[in-house]
Amino acid sequence: MADAQPPAEKITAEVERLKEMSHQAFFEAWITYVQGGTDEATTREAQAEAFRSQDLASRTLAAADRAAREFKTVVARRDGESKRDHQARIRDFRQQLQDARQPVLAAVEDLAADEAEYLAQLDDEAFAEEWSAFVREAAGSSRSGRNYVQGLAFRSPEVAPRTQALAVQMMRNPEDFLPELEGESRKAHQARVTQLRSRLEAELRFLQYTLNYMAARWGRMPTAPNYRLQAMRLLAERYPEEFSRLRTAVRNDARQAREDVLRQRRAERRPQARSAN
After folding, report:
1. What is the pTM assigned to this prediction?
2. First vs last Cα of the chain: how many Å apart?
3. Quick one: where's region Disordered (predicted)?
4. 23, 69, 149, 233: which has the fewest Cβ within 10 Å?
5. If we measure between CA atoms, which residue out of 68, 75, 60, 66 comes closest to residue 29?
6. How many C-beta atoms lie closer than 10 Å to residue 116's C-beta?
7. What's the burial of 257, exposed, middle or buried (CB within 10 Å: 0-12/13-18/19+)?
8. Contact, 211 vs 161, CB < 8 A?
């Protein structure tokens, strides 16, 4: 028999309680839940619904990922505990974590599908605002906790082509999307631009994987991006005069090389012509 659905007010109350927690307190609450415990202020059923709610699913998934990385700290070896017993507890915890994480992951993917549908119907200006806000937030974050839902939505097959085109545009002209702040020094602004570019480079790699998957799914071999050509285009846009000078120099060198080859061939033919006469 399926577990009874907890009352909506209890779920809402638990969501609000968890939202007010610090990151460490939230992490500890998640670990307690994973290991079968429940806070006295709520029920296990209400807590399960809260952890995978729209407001908390991304944060819960970040906590689950942290727990997977820090399992040795979470399941510390006890005094006098044998290595075998400790390893057994670690295995049990990993299984508990996997079981608890799966419903949260499913909730995040469902939310991402809804978010992708929302993003797809936006006009270009609104879409650019959403993407810019997402990338800037991710670029300014030094810890895990970014919005998994929106990230999955932007990289979804339905939205990825549009996202990639905008990301390339941002890479070419980041200042258009990252204006200087009042009182901000030039050095500080350049640091933010560099940080934004780094995030965009990572996102473009993710997006390329999505686009490759879309091609492969239809039995077509994905086309590898021509990074050299892309770099040349960026150089031409940023430094048009220097690029033009270099292009002219390369053309002149190529023309000179062709003339040298022709001159050498003519020089080789002259002795042969004299011998024939």
Report:
1. 0.70
2. 108
3. 254-277
4. 69
5. 60
6. 20
7. exposed
8. yes
